[in-house]
Amino acid sequence: MPWTDGPLPTRWLGQPLWHLDTVDSTNQWLRTAMGSGRAGHGAVVVADRQTAGRGRRGRVWESPPAGNIYTSVLLCPPPERLSGLLSLLAGVAVVQAVRDVTQLDAQLKWPNDAVLHGRKFAGVLVEAGVSPAPWAIVGMGINVNGAPSAHYPQATSLAHEWEGGMVDAKTLFHALLVALEATYEEWLREGDSLVVERWSRMNVTVGHVVEVHQPGQLPWVGRALRLDADGSLWVARDNQPVKIVAGDVSVRLPGGGYASGNCW
After folding, report:
1. CATH classification of 17-202 is 3.30.930.10, yes or no?
2. Which of 7, 92, 147, 148 is 20 to 30 A removed from 186 (C-alpha atoms)?
3. Which carries the bigger pLDDT value, residue 36 or residue 255?
């Protein structure tokens, strides 16, 4: 896949852009490039295949070489703007790009999954720090043309859900960079409320009954109420609102499935 052929449709995102055939993890590769001084704000790496892709809480992200998108972006926001909302911001960009290219009704499941018809097709993993200056590496994996794995019945791909068949991964990748660049700039100008509002309009979590898994606790069931200004999720437990922080929980429907497009 010639990801780097021709100019990018962005102004600063993807300057520079590296295309790798195979990498252990795009997040780890970009972090190493940042540490050596090769990568700064706006740098992007995209790979045809990952051998050690990761999701939240150390989960494995399957990354076969099948026309999918495995990419990481380095962002260096102002010190006062380094925020947990970056994961939600990236999710908004993923869904916007998919909608623009395929017209599929892609949606977001808290905190970092993108879903179609109740099945996950994309995930976001953000790693951040403040030394020597604030930085955030935003990793995004999108199942574009790969066949859904029998090992993961809750996963799908865009091609599997799209009547048009195979999706042009390069076109989608470029649309993702455009959406991410624009949303990031708007977030810097307008504040966190912009991300909260856009994510809330795209989500399939708020208003649903969900099963909450927290380390060291038995799962419990409640109704997702709203997204907090900092990106956390408020869930009603026994009629009392409980604030759930991203990274500490996994939210599912009772029984383990992803939310459909309908509330109940």
Report:
1. yes
2. 7
3. 36
